Amino acid sequence: MEFNIKSGSPEKQRVACVIVGVYESRKLTLAADLLDRISNGFVSDVIRRGDMEGKLGSTLVLHSVPHALCDRVMLVGLGKEREFRAKEYREAIRASIRALAQTSANEAVSYLSELPVKKHEVEWMVEQATVVTLDTLYRFDRFKSKVDDPLRGPRKLTLAVPRRSDLADGEKGLARGLAISAGMTLAKDLGNLPGNVCTPSYLADEARDMAQALGAEADILDRAAIEALGMGSFLSVAKGSVQDPRLIVLKHWGAKDRNDAPVVLVGKGITFDSGGISLKPGEGMDEMKFDMCGAASVLGAFKAAVEMKLPINLITVVPTCENMPSGDAVKPGDIVTSMSGQTIEVLNTDAEGRLILCDALTYVERFNPSCVVDVATLTGACVIALGHVATALYSNQDALARELFAAGEEVGDRAWHMPMWEEYQEQLKSPFADMANIGGRPAGSVTAACFLSRFAKGYDWAHLDIAGTASRGGKDKGATGRPVPLLVQFLQDRADIALGNVVRRGRPRREVTEPAEDDAD
Fold first, then answer.
1. Which residues bind Mn(2+) 1 (predicted)?
2. CB–CB of 160/111 below 8 Å?
3. Taking a C-beta distance cutoff of 8 angstroms, is the pair 409, 417 a contact?
4. Burial of 457 (0-12, 13-18, 19+ CB in 10 A)
């Protein structure tokens, strides 16, 4: 799809469709009012008849609006004006694109991007409209011989901005939106691939090819190199599979000084999780191909950050393997030695994600990171706690947690800061090793984070448990691309602070100081 940014009056647009908004009070937005005036009250007359009441997400397509140069006018319900915020804006955009895709219009101009949204500016409006549009139109049909019900979408979409002076900010927002969408698409494509295609070696090859195309560095470590590092915990998970593990390391040196401490992203890359010897139930096991969505999301965030040319040093690390049962597989009761030298009693082989992440968290110490954020579909307990709305956020630094939380709020990719108090560490005690790999049913997501924290004491660290947000089930089953938007906004904010710029938070722009001193729990 081709995107454009434009400033101009809606009644002068000679296109297939012009998109405008209507509030629940039947109040017209400025663009809708201009069309109503030129049509001698045609639009308001339709609304008075009750065909469009302005309910959020509702749509109505009008043909042959008098004196308008466009073929169609789409009215989009915005809900109550006093309640119209970022969430409602995204929902209105999504509804308009779905409705537009059901028409034959191949070109449209949307005036929803002109709407006033409290605390947000033109750049954000265009960025979010772009991301939501491409997310709505996303389809994964690579393996279908015939596409059943394709969602078409226009060939060209123009996003309107209020004034000509806003065009530059609109272009910036569009560039950001396209980069974030590219990262989300990569994450969704990788997540949706079946396990027989997206193996550890396939994931590594894709990462290498992406890095080469972006001009970034890529190091791919094979089994021998992983063994040489002493990653006994990671290798214990890979033992049961015929697929060899890989450790993927991507590097982007965007800061002026290559020696600046990098941000490090770590993603869990279990390309298929059977549970190992602690075998999962058969029902729903097909969705365990999504157990590498942590890896997919950090690769997607890396792609977006490099395309945006963010002036920071960024390193992305992905330990990837399968978790399968076999005569060689790790068994409940086995004790393994991690790269850090700490020993782990494996009580449940289905708690494997933490076993590969802990060695990756030790590995990244060599980069002297400014901070490390790991992303993983780690626990079913996280889904019980937060459902499919919010990602669970843990950190050994409250300041870092606040950065991630704020980034998620900014882009609608929400996370919630969870406790990780020392009392929870007691559940990981083992009579035979330094720790057990599970802490029992109570607070399962918390104790999983506590486990990882034992390998991240040398730097500022945060953990995102995306088990409930990385994919969806049912008729819309598939990867969501989350938390790519959160991660990219976090990286953008870090880059802005490093450059001494203000962080993009609302309108007007505000001053932002350095993160607060350590006030960890």
1. 273, 350, 352
2. yes
3. no
4. exposed
350 is in an annotated binding site: yes
Q: What is the pTM of this model?
A: 0.94
Length of the chain: 521
Is 83 annotated in some ligand binding site? no
pLDDT in tens, 468-516: 999 999 888 999 999 999 999 999 999 998 887 766 654 333 333 333 3
DSSP 508: S
User: Measuring CA to CA, which residue among 395, 391, 382, 394 is closest to residue 485?
Assistant: 391
Tell me what the mean pLDDT of segment 73-87 comes to: 97
Q: Would you say 352 is a known binding-site residue?
A: yes
DSSP 8-state secondary structure symbol assigned to residue 369 = -
Question: What is the distance between the alpha carbons of residues 504 and 496, in angstroms, rounded to a whole number?
Answer: 9
pLDDT of residue 293: 98
Q: Where are the domains of the chain?
A: 2-163, 243-498
169: annotated binding-site residue?
A: no
**CATH architecture assigned to 2-163:** 3-Layer(aba) Sandwich (3.40)
Please identify every residue annotated as catalytic.
Answer: 280, 354
Specify the fold of 243-498.
Aminopeptidase (3.40.630)
Q: In angstroms, rounded to a whole number, what is the distance separating the alpha carbons of residues 275 and 251?
A: 32
According to DSSP, the residues that pair with 395 across neighbouring strands are: 462
Q: Is 291 annotated as a binding residue?
A: yes
Two tokens, residue 219: 């190091």
Average pLDDT, the chain: 95
